[in-house]
Amino acid sequence: MTGCDGSDGGRDDREKDGEAESHGDASVDVDRVGKTYRGDRDGDAVRALDDVSFAVDKGEFVCLVGPSGCGKTTLFRIIAGLTDATDGEIRLAGRTVTGPTTDMGVVFQEYHLFPWLTIEENVGFGLERSDRSAAERERRVDEMLDLVGLAEFRGSYPKSLSGGMKQRVAIARALAVDPELLLMDEPFGAVDAQTREMLQRELLDVWESTGKTVLFVTHDVAEAVTLADRIVVMAAEPGRVEEIVDVDVDRPRERGDPTFGEHVARVRELIGAGP
Fold first, then answer.
1. Among 8, 50, 118, 237, whose CB has the most other CB atoms within 10 angstroms?
2. Domain with 41 in it: what CATH number?
3. pLDDT tens digit at each of 275 positions of the chain
4. 84 and 145 share a domain?
5. Cα 106 to the chain's mean position, in Å?
6. For the region Disordered, what residue ranges are annotated (predicted)?
């Protein structure tokens, strides 16, 4: 594991090389995950991911970044249980992930809200098949709407909301089932820069108030440095862990802080994006 100066902080060198050991208290273990796409003819196979390993501890906020073609989206889908790994495995709270589970709340770049349901109904959708009573479900929805600041819009429909508000609904829906992990794939990629920064601040507030474990995929290095405790930096062809960077900057983080800039420069250097 490394700071922005590239030192390993006393951890085993295997962690820096992408062979992180499993953590006994980990919420998520990505254990030697590989993915090969078979072609139509012999020799056409493509190795998209190779021997990817890292752990996310309970309550930790980790960002995943890397260049185009490094397999971030493929890895996200494997962790979410939406596609299978060719080798290796994902463990969530010690249990092997074999498919989608309510132990994960998943948020995509697209909001995926049901336009015919109200905001309240969208947030509560995942609770419909739970063993909670109707009163408990209603109370949980109320809590989530309050958490993301949308209680006054509970009876509105998605078409009446801005992009930022729609994504807050998606986050509330993901959290409503009380998941072990909040898994997010470029969730703020479809909004303007000002809204993006506002949503980043709000997400940190939600994370701090809930204590959830978060794994957040982004192509935006400054976003990763703003949010993360650690950044898993991936390399491409095949996708693999290049390095894991500790973000040892006190929160709230200011982009004008020289230390913030040093971390951004370090991560950009690792992914080949320049200073």
1. 50
2. 3.40.50.300
3. 445 544 444 334 434 444 444 445 679 999 999 999 987 666 678 899 999 999 999 999 999 999 999 999 999 999 999 999 999 999 999 999 999 999 999 999 898 999 999 999 999 998 987 888 899 999 999 999 999 999 999 999 999 999 999 999 999 999 999 999 999 999 998 889 999 999 999 999 999 999 999 999 999 999 999 999 999 999 999 999 999 999 999 999 999 999 999 999 999 999 986 55
4. no
5. 8
6. 1-32
Residue 205 within any structural domain of the chain = no
Would 203 be classed as within a structural domain? no
- Per the listing, tokens 């405790």 go with 229
Number of structural domains (the chain) is: 2
Q: Read off the tokens for 110.
A: 């697209």
Same domain, 13 and 86: yes
By DSSP bridging, strand 181-185 and strand 104-107 are parallel
The angle, 0 to 180 degrees and rounded to 10, between the axes of the packed helices 163-176 and 134-147 is 140
Residues 222 and 192 in one domain: yes
Q: Are residues 71 and 21 in the same domain?
A: yes
Q: Which residue has the tokens 């997400």?
A: 203
What's the rounded Cα separation, in Å, for the pair 76 and 189?
16
Query: Would you put residue 105 in left (φ > 0), alpha (ψ -120 to 50) or beta?
Result: beta
Count the neighbouring beta carbons within 10 Å of the beta carbon of residue 46.
11
The CA distance from 56 to 244, in Å, is 11
> Which residue type is seen at 160?
S
Expressed as residue numbers, the domain containing 9 is 1-103+182-196+211-275
Phi and psi dihedrals of 33, rounded to 5? -80, 130
Give the number of other CB atoms < 10 A from CB of residue 233.
26
Query: In this structure, are residues 216 and 228 in contact, taking their beta carbons and an 8 Å threshold?
Result: yes
